[in-house]
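U., I forgot to send this yesterday:
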Amino acid sequence: MSRAQLRLRSLFAAAFVLFGSALWAADPLTEMVRRSGFVFRGTVVRLHAATATVPPEERTAVVKVEEIFEAQTELRRLAGQEVTVRLLAPASAAAGSSRIFFTHLYSLGASAGLEEVGSLDPQEATEVRTRIAAARRDLADEALQTRLADAVAVVVATVVKPRAAEAARNRGASEHDPQWRQARITVESVAKPGASATPKEALTVFFAGSDDVMWFEAPKLEEGQRAILLLHTGARGAFKPPGLAVVDKLDVQPVDELARVKRLLAATR
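Result:
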């Protein structure tokens, strides 16, 4: 075996250790769901064409939305309407053909422009809803597991009255300043040990008080709130918290998610 082949084998072995067997077991539908936000059954009306306000391209087609499987609330109004789809494989499309399209939005005006990331035969429609829901659960678990792995500690705790963070005062102004606030928390139990977190102990936790676009989804702790907290110390962009912090929308979980959190923590070990 050549040196290059040995190196390639070692890289694959390292990848398996790092990512686990799921690296090779990725479900194609799950990957389509990951990359899409609007899934629908549609019929191709015209090829190399586009709806109003969307520029036509060689691979765009006008498609009628027959049935919506997954969409944000504001896009559900597209049911029954014609939309523009940038086809993944325009050469294999034909007017009058139907597919279940996995797409994401790239243009929205009087009509919508959608980028196809994959499609399925419409005969699979009866099981698609179930498979999409399962894929969303898997993706949600994946995202939470990543935050759990990065957390320095995971605790069940109750929030004591929050206030402005002393350490954050008098700092240089920034368009995306998180406006750090702090709260004392009383630790009830520890799901992932670290950061000297022990039951009955009081810790100081920081969180972003700003509603800026960079922080509007970041958790805002409230007095008396009881939750699972994923505590981090790392920076978010250019902003490093003064201490333990919850900065991502996944960093605060309802207490009734504790069994799920423990399952995902066990899988990371």
